[in-house]
Amino acid sequence: QVQLVESGGGLVQPGGSLRLSCAASGGGSSLKTMGWYRQAPGKEREWVATSYVSSATVAHSVKDRFTISRDNAKNTVYLQMNSLKPEDTAVYYCRQFFPNFWGQGTQVTVSS
After folding, report:
1. Residue 98, class by beta-carbon neighbours within 10 Å (0-12 exposed, 13-18 middle, 19+ buried)?
2. Within a 13 Å sphere around the CA of 27, how many CA atoms are in the beta-carbon half?
């Protein structure tokens, strides 16, 4: 059974940075295609970024501020978030594609 454990969320002031981590286990030795999504209160879950084995894509709305990366040796995918804004406040979820699994989410709150 695949387990995805997110960490790194918290409260940060506008303009600050956070790095989220998602550690995958139980899915074999190779890290699969992984993604980050977020869901703000009262809104639908939205895609943020995807890390493929040798490339990555980031949503246009955050591409100048967020970066997705991976460490295959640690079976971990990261989301570096810079210049955070109050509208980035959401629960951030890690997702493994093929097969599909979700993490439990980590809260990010951007507020002064």
Report:
1. exposed
2. 24
